[in-house]
Amino acid sequence: MNDGRLLIFGGTSDARLLCERLDAQGVRYRLSVATAAGRQQAAGLQGEIREGRMDAQAMAEYCRRHGIRLLADLSHPYAAVLSDTILQVQRELGIPLVRYNRPSDIDAVDNPLIYKTDSIDSACEIAMTLGQRILLTTGSKQLADYIARLPGKTVLARVLPTQEVLAQCESYGMTIDQIFALKGPFSAEFNEAFYRYCGTDVVITKESGTQGGFSEKIAPCLALGIPCIVVVRPQTRVSGDVTELQDLCGVEQYLTSRFSVC
Q1: What stretch or stretches form a coiled coil here (predicted)?
Q2: Quick one: 17 exposed, middle or buried, by C-beta within 10 A (0-12, 13-18, 19+)?
Q3: Residue 51 sits in which domain range?
Q4: What share of residues in the chain are helix, strand, coil (percent, to 5)?
Q5: Of 19, 54, 129, 222, which residue is most buried, by most CB within 10 angstroms?
Q6: Per-residue model confidence as pLDDT tens digits over 25-57
Q7: Residue from 55, 54, 49, 51 nearest 16 by CA
Q8: Measuring CA to CA, which residue among 118, 122, 96 is closest to residue 206?
Protein backbone atom coordinates (compact mmCIF):
# COMPACT_ATOMS: atom_id res chain seq x y z
CA MET A 1 0.00 0.00 0.00
CA ASN A 2 1.26 3.46 -0.92
CA ASP A 3 1.22 5.17 2.49
CA GLY A 4 2.68 8.58 1.72
CA ARG A 5 6.02 7.98 3.43
CA LEU A 6 7.93 9.85 0.74
CA LEU A 7 9.22 13.30 1.72
CA ILE A 8 10.15 15.69 -1.08
CA PHE A 9 12.05 18.93 -0.46
CA GLY A 10 11.72 21.87 -2.81
CA GLY A 11 9.63 24.90 -3.65
CA THR A 12 11.04 24.84 -7.19
CA SER A 13 9.40 24.34 -10.57
CA ASP A 14 11.24 21.00 -10.72
CA ALA A 15 9.59 19.83 -7.51
CA ARG A 16 6.16 20.91 -8.72
CA LEU A 17 6.54 19.07 -12.02
CA LEU A 18 7.65 15.92 -10.23
CA CYS A 19 4.72 16.12 -7.79
CA GLU A 20 2.28 16.58 -10.66
CA ARG A 21 3.62 13.40 -12.23
CA LEU A 22 3.36 11.53 -8.93
CA ASP A 23 -0.21 12.79 -8.51
CA ALA A 24 -1.07 11.40 -11.94
CA GLN A 25 0.25 7.99 -10.90
CA GLY A 26 -1.45 7.96 -7.53
CA VAL A 27 1.78 8.11 -5.55
CA ARG A 28 1.33 9.82 -2.19
CA TYR A 29 3.99 12.13 -0.76
CA ARG A 30 4.68 15.02 1.56
CA LEU A 31 6.29 18.19 0.20
CA SER A 32 8.44 20.44 2.36
CA VAL A 33 8.82 24.08 1.24
CA ALA A 34 10.68 26.85 3.05
CA THR A 35 8.54 29.89 2.28
CA ALA A 36 5.07 31.17 1.47
CA ALA A 37 6.23 31.58 -2.13
CA GLY A 38 7.08 27.89 -2.17
CA ARG A 39 3.59 27.05 -0.91
CA GLN A 40 2.10 29.17 -3.68
CA GLN A 41 4.25 27.27 -6.18
CA ALA A 42 2.73 24.06 -4.79
CA ALA A 43 -0.90 25.21 -5.08
CA GLY A 44 -3.18 22.48 -6.40
CA LEU A 45 -0.89 19.57 -5.64
CA GLN A 46 -2.40 16.57 -3.90
CA GLY A 47 0.41 15.92 -1.43
CA GLU A 48 0.51 17.33 2.09
CA ILE A 49 2.49 20.59 2.13
CA ARG A 50 4.71 21.58 5.04
CA GLU A 51 5.87 25.20 5.08
CA GLY A 52 8.86 26.46 7.04
CA ARG A 53 12.56 25.83 7.38
CA MET A 54 13.76 22.93 9.54
CA ASP A 55 17.10 22.33 11.20
CA ALA A 56 18.46 18.79 11.37
CA GLN A 57 16.75 17.99 14.67
CA ALA A 58 13.32 19.21 13.53
CA MET A 59 13.68 17.43 10.21
CA ALA A 60 14.62 14.14 11.83
CA GLU A 61 11.70 14.43 14.26
CA TYR A 62 9.32 15.13 11.39
CA CYS A 63 10.58 12.07 9.52
CA ARG A 64 10.17 9.84 12.57
CA ARG A 65 6.70 11.18 13.35
CA HIS A 66 5.43 10.49 9.84
CA GLY A 67 7.35 7.27 9.25
CA ILE A 68 9.25 8.65 6.26
CA ARG A 69 10.99 5.88 4.31
CA LEU A 70 12.50 7.86 1.42
CA LEU A 71 13.83 11.41 0.97
CA ALA A 72 13.95 13.32 -2.32
CA ASP A 73 15.98 16.54 -2.55
CA LEU A 74 14.65 18.80 -5.33
CA SER A 75 15.66 22.00 -3.60
CA HIS A 76 17.18 24.96 -5.44
CA PRO A 77 20.74 24.30 -6.73
CA TYR A 78 22.01 27.04 -4.40
CA ALA A 79 20.25 25.75 -1.28
CA ALA A 80 23.48 24.17 -0.03
CA VAL A 81 22.57 24.46 3.65
CA LEU A 82 19.29 22.62 3.11
CA SER A 83 20.94 19.90 1.04
CA ASP A 84 23.58 19.40 3.74
CA THR A 85 20.86 19.20 6.40
CA ILE A 86 18.94 16.61 4.39
CA LEU A 87 22.12 14.57 3.99
CA GLN A 88 22.79 14.78 7.73
CA VAL A 89 19.28 13.50 8.51
CA GLN A 90 19.56 10.78 5.89
CA ARG A 91 22.71 9.49 7.56
CA GLU A 92 21.17 9.72 11.03
CA LEU A 93 18.03 7.82 10.09
CA GLY A 94 19.61 5.45 7.59
CA ILE A 95 16.95 5.90 4.91
CA PRO A 96 17.54 6.33 1.15
CA LEU A 97 17.95 9.76 -0.43
CA VAL A 98 17.62 10.67 -4.08
CA ARG A 99 18.92 14.07 -5.13
CA TYR A 100 18.02 15.83 -8.38
CA ASN A 101 20.82 17.93 -9.85
CA ARG A 102 19.71 20.30 -12.57
CA PRO A 103 21.86 19.82 -15.68
CA SER A 104 24.50 22.53 -15.91
CA ASP A 105 25.63 24.28 -19.07
CA ILE A 106 28.08 26.66 -17.41
CA ASP A 107 31.08 24.99 -19.08
CA ALA A 108 29.65 25.89 -22.49
CA VAL A 109 29.66 29.61 -21.60
CA ASP A 110 32.94 31.13 -22.73
CA ASN A 111 33.07 34.83 -23.55
CA PRO A 112 35.15 37.79 -22.32
CA LEU A 113 31.95 39.43 -21.05
CA ILE A 114 31.19 36.48 -18.76
CA TYR A 115 32.90 36.38 -15.36
CA LYS A 116 32.55 33.12 -13.44
CA THR A 117 33.04 33.14 -9.69
CA ASP A 118 32.18 30.98 -6.70
CA SER A 119 31.29 33.56 -4.05
CA ILE A 120 29.34 36.74 -3.41
CA ASP A 121 32.51 38.46 -2.20
CA SER A 122 34.28 37.78 -5.47
CA ALA A 123 31.23 38.71 -7.56
CA CYS A 124 30.99 42.07 -5.84
CA GLU A 125 34.71 42.75 -6.14
CA ILE A 126 34.42 42.24 -9.89
CA ALA A 127 31.22 44.28 -10.18
CA MET A 128 32.80 47.21 -8.36
CA THR A 129 35.23 47.62 -11.27
CA LEU A 130 32.71 47.30 -14.10
CA GLY A 131 29.99 49.91 -13.70
CA GLN A 132 27.61 51.95 -11.57
CA ARG A 133 24.21 50.32 -12.11
CA ILE A 134 24.33 46.69 -11.04
CA LEU A 135 21.35 44.42 -11.66
CA LEU A 136 20.91 41.39 -9.41
CA THR A 137 18.91 38.44 -10.72
CA THR A 138 20.03 36.29 -7.81
CA GLY A 139 16.86 36.35 -5.69
CA SER A 140 16.29 38.02 -2.33
CA LYS A 141 17.83 35.53 0.08
CA GLN A 142 21.30 37.08 0.04
CA LEU A 143 20.34 40.54 -1.12
CA ALA A 144 21.65 42.18 2.05
CA ASP A 145 25.08 40.62 1.46
CA TYR A 146 25.26 42.09 -2.03
CA ILE A 147 24.15 45.55 -0.94
CA ALA A 148 26.72 45.60 1.87
CA ARG A 149 29.49 44.67 -0.58
CA LEU A 150 28.56 47.19 -3.28
CA PRO A 151 28.98 50.56 -1.51
CA GLY A 152 28.37 53.59 -3.68
CA LYS A 153 26.74 51.56 -6.43
CA THR A 154 23.14 51.67 -7.62
CA VAL A 155 21.89 48.17 -6.87
CA LEU A 156 18.83 47.02 -8.80
CA ALA A 157 17.12 43.78 -7.82
CA ARG A 158 14.67 41.56 -9.69
CA VAL A 159 12.83 39.61 -7.01
CA LEU A 160 9.65 37.61 -6.46
CA PRO A 161 6.48 39.71 -6.11
CA THR A 162 5.55 38.72 -2.57
CA GLN A 163 4.79 40.94 0.40
CA GLU A 164 7.56 39.33 2.43
CA VAL A 165 10.21 39.91 -0.23
CA LEU A 166 9.15 43.50 -0.91
CA ALA A 167 9.23 44.31 2.80
CA GLN A 168 12.68 42.76 2.96
CA CYS A 169 13.92 44.96 0.10
CA GLU A 170 12.53 48.08 1.75
CA SER A 171 14.16 47.15 5.06
CA TYR A 172 17.52 47.26 3.26
CA GLY A 173 16.83 50.85 2.20
CA MET A 174 15.97 50.05 -1.41
CA THR A 175 13.59 52.45 -3.16
CA ILE A 176 10.83 51.78 -5.69
CA ASP A 177 13.30 52.70 -8.45
CA GLN A 178 15.54 49.80 -7.43
CA ILE A 179 13.00 47.01 -6.90
CA PHE A 180 11.51 45.03 -9.80
CA ALA A 181 9.01 42.46 -8.54
CA LEU A 182 8.58 39.85 -11.25
CA LYS A 183 8.38 36.07 -11.41
CA GLY A 184 10.45 34.34 -14.06
CA PRO A 185 11.82 32.66 -15.94
CA PHE A 186 11.75 35.09 -18.85
CA SER A 187 12.56 34.92 -22.54
CA ALA A 188 15.80 36.33 -23.91
CA GLU A 189 13.76 39.02 -25.69
CA PHE A 190 12.12 40.08 -22.44
CA ASN A 191 15.45 40.18 -20.62
CA GLU A 192 17.07 42.25 -23.36
CA ALA A 193 14.27 44.83 -23.16
CA PHE A 194 14.44 44.72 -19.37
CA TYR A 195 18.20 45.31 -19.29
CA ARG A 196 17.75 48.26 -21.64
CA TYR A 197 14.97 49.67 -19.50
CA CYS A 198 17.06 49.39 -16.33
CA GLY A 199 20.07 50.96 -17.98
CA THR A 200 22.16 48.32 -16.28
CA ASP A 201 25.93 48.36 -16.56
CA VAL A 202 26.48 44.92 -15.01
CA VAL A 203 24.31 41.84 -14.42
CA ILE A 204 24.96 39.41 -11.58
CA THR A 205 23.16 36.11 -11.86
CA LYS A 206 23.30 32.46 -10.84
CA GLU A 207 23.89 29.30 -12.82
CA SER A 208 20.22 28.34 -12.61
CA GLY A 209 20.04 25.88 -15.50
CA THR A 210 17.41 25.57 -18.20
CA GLN A 211 14.52 25.68 -15.72
CA GLY A 212 15.80 28.97 -14.32
CA GLY A 213 16.25 30.58 -17.72
CA PHE A 214 20.03 30.79 -17.43
CA SER A 215 20.85 31.03 -21.13
CA GLU A 216 18.03 33.55 -21.61
CA LYS A 217 19.72 35.79 -19.04
CA ILE A 218 23.18 35.42 -20.57
CA ALA A 219 22.36 35.90 -24.26
CA PRO A 220 21.04 39.49 -23.95
CA CYS A 221 24.19 40.50 -22.05
CA LEU A 222 26.31 39.32 -24.96
CA ALA A 223 24.01 41.02 -27.47
CA LEU A 224 24.12 44.33 -25.59
CA GLY A 225 27.77 44.17 -24.56
CA ILE A 226 26.93 44.08 -20.85
CA PRO A 227 29.32 42.27 -18.47
CA CYS A 228 27.64 39.35 -16.71
CA ILE A 229 28.95 37.86 -13.48
CA VAL A 230 27.85 34.28 -12.86
CA VAL A 231 28.02 32.87 -9.34
CA VAL A 232 28.50 29.16 -10.02
CA ARG A 233 26.76 26.47 -8.01
CA PRO A 234 28.17 25.35 -4.67
CA GLN A 235 29.49 21.81 -4.50
CA THR A 236 27.17 19.49 -2.60
CA ARG A 237 28.43 16.70 -0.40
CA VAL A 238 27.83 13.17 -1.56
CA SER A 239 27.37 9.87 0.23
CA GLY A 240 27.30 6.24 -0.76
CA ASP A 241 23.63 6.13 0.24
CA VAL A 242 22.65 9.02 -2.05
CA THR A 243 21.38 8.48 -5.58
CA GLU A 244 22.16 11.56 -7.71
CA LEU A 245 20.26 12.05 -10.96
CA GLN A 246 20.22 14.81 -13.60
CA ASP A 247 17.07 13.60 -15.32
CA LEU A 248 13.70 14.44 -13.77
CA CYS A 249 12.13 11.44 -15.49
CA GLY A 250 14.78 9.29 -13.85
CA VAL A 251 13.82 10.69 -10.44
CA GLU A 252 10.17 9.94 -11.15
CA GLN A 253 10.98 6.35 -12.14
CA TYR A 254 13.18 5.91 -9.08
CA LEU A 255 10.39 7.03 -6.75
CA THR A 256 7.51 5.21 -8.42
CA SER A 257 9.48 1.97 -8.46
CA ARG A 258 9.65 2.14 -4.66
CA PHE A 259 6.07 3.09 -3.91
CA SER A 260 3.07 1.09 -5.04
CA VAL A 261 0.03 2.91 -6.35
CA CYS A 262 -3.11 3.07 -4.20
Answers
A1: none
A2: middle
A3: 6-103+236-257
A4: 40, 20, 40
A5: 19
A6: 999 999 999 888 888 889 899 999 999 999 999
A7: 49
A8: 118
